[in-house]
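Q: Here's a chain of 97 amino acids. Please give me its 3D structure as tokens.
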Amino acid sequence: MAGWILQSNDETPRLLRLTPGTARTIGRGAHADFVFEAPLVSRVHCRLTADASGQLVMEDLGSTNGTSVNGTPTARAVLRPNDVLGVGRVSFTVTEG
């Protein structure tokens, strides 16, 4: 498996790529790996981990407005293809890549 791709569903779509064995954070602060200046996104909002077994795991990092998977507020989840990850007002569609 080559990893995971998350595509934002906003006006200017952005691609986030994670290869197996990596962990990256999403947030609006300079310390986040993927920075999004968007309403309701915390400085370091959530962590995405593409583990060696091929799973993509999302963990909310105590964000103010929470993180959702397929519209359900979620603190931790294993993401699957076609899931929609919500971070503030930004949503991402998950695909394998």
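Q: Can you summarize the key feature?
A: The chain has no helices and eleven strands.
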